[in-house]
Amino acid sequence: MNKVEIKHLTKIFGRKVNQALKMIENQQSKKEILAKTGATVGVYDASFEVKEGEIFVIMGLSGSGKSTLIRLLNRLIEPTKGQIYIDGQDIAKLDHEGLREVRRHKINMVFQNFGLFPHRTILENVEYGLEIKGVDKATRVQKAEQALDNAGLLDFKNQLPNQLSGGMQQRVGLARALANDPEILLMDEAFSALDPLIRREMQDELLDLQAKVKKTIIFITHDLNEALRIGDRIALMKDGQIMQIGTGEEILTNPANEFVREFVEDVDRSKVLTAQNIMVPAITTNIELDGPNVALTRMRREEISMLLAVDRNRNLKGIITADLALKARKENLPLSAVVETEVPTINKDMLVTDIFNIIYDAKTPLVVTENNRVLGVVIRGSVIEALAETNEGQETPVTESEEVVHG
């Protein structure tokens, strides 16, 4: 279900808006438009949807339009044209009173600078949004304390902001936004002022908090690694236009154009790519139908020494080695009687960086399963290639233990 839907949203700053729009349509650059019209293209023809409970990241370099875009969503900046739907209501058409209600009850924003009142306690800071909404004292204290507890800050409620670290102050800002119980949380470069270690901790805390509160979050960043780490989907912007929208995996593996390709080329792919991206087809034997001779013939034809044993529904049952198949033929046994059930399995969403720690000591490839159904196998060579970002066309040696169960 879509919580937010943006259609053809555009913002041109300055005069000669119509002339600027025509120049954009004619593929003229942002610099050319500024030089000829004096108008600045903030955002042009942005369209996307954000699902309920999703972390949707908008990212780009300085001047790409990402901060303008997020301010258009709650009309801190007025759009030149386009629609902004929240729960099906176009807030671009709301009057001041209607917009005030949306900001009070549906949307809250967390900025890069924490914006805490220095002479108010942490609890009083978190209460503030509820106070201006006219919520009674007892209720707002209860809600503020709950928000602080969720953020792990309840013990600090009576301290002043300057008694807390930068990371803790940012957590207070996040708690203050969540105390109002908004349906949508806008976060504009919320962690960029923090040093790298605290920034990573805040990313972890946001993900942990999101698992509890399940808000719809639109997060602005210029940091690709941050976007890949926290975003369910990412919109990549350049010169006010959206270049590509997709999951981190989709953007890394199928960049939409040269700009996107260059933008993502230095990212650590092992922290984004998953088993699903690097697995290869599994060669199997159906132990409900096949006998030892069929299994041995398949091994000989594929030049391998092991098959995955599955049932009619491709549910994993184990492994059949050449020795086990020979034993079954010699003793006139079905394959099900000799199957080796101990086989290492992984989820299709496991990151390559985590797979490496498992496959390093594994004697066989790792079987990728979903609800026990075989999807494919991951071999050591594929993991090493992903980790090393081997160029296309280069070959990575495969050890003997990998020359099994895959084609």
From TrEMBL:
It is an enzyme of class 7 (translocase). Pfam families: ABC_tran (PF00005), CBS (PF00571). Keywords: Amino-acid transport, ATP-binding, CBS domain, Cell inner membrane, Cell membrane, Membrane, Nucleotide-binding, Transport. Belongs to the ABC transporter superfamily. This is Quaternary amine transport ATP-binding protein. It is a peripheral membrane protein. InterPro entries: AAA+_ATPase, ABC_osmolyte_uptake_ATP-bind, ABC_transporter-like_ATP-bd, ABC_transporter-like_CS, CBS_dom, CBS_dom_sf, Gly-betaine_transp_ATP-bd, P-loop_NTPase. One of its GO terms (molecular function) is ABC-type quaternary ammonium compound transporting activity. It comes from the Bacteria. It is found in: Cell inner membrane. One of its GO terms (biological process) is amino acid transport. It comes from Enterococcus columbae DSM 7374 = ATCC 51263. SMART domains: AAA, CBS. SUPFAM superfamilies: CBS-domain pair (SSF54631), P-loop containing nucleoside triphosphate hydrolases (SSF52540). GO terms for cellular component: plasma membrane. PANTHER family: GLYCINE BETAINE/PROLINE BETAINE TRANSPORT SYSTEM ATP-BINDING PROTEIN PROV, GLYCINE BETAINE_PROLINE BETAINE TRANSPORT SYSTEM ATP-BINDING PROTEIN PROV. Its EC number is 7.6.2.9. Residues 24-264 form the ABC transporter domain.
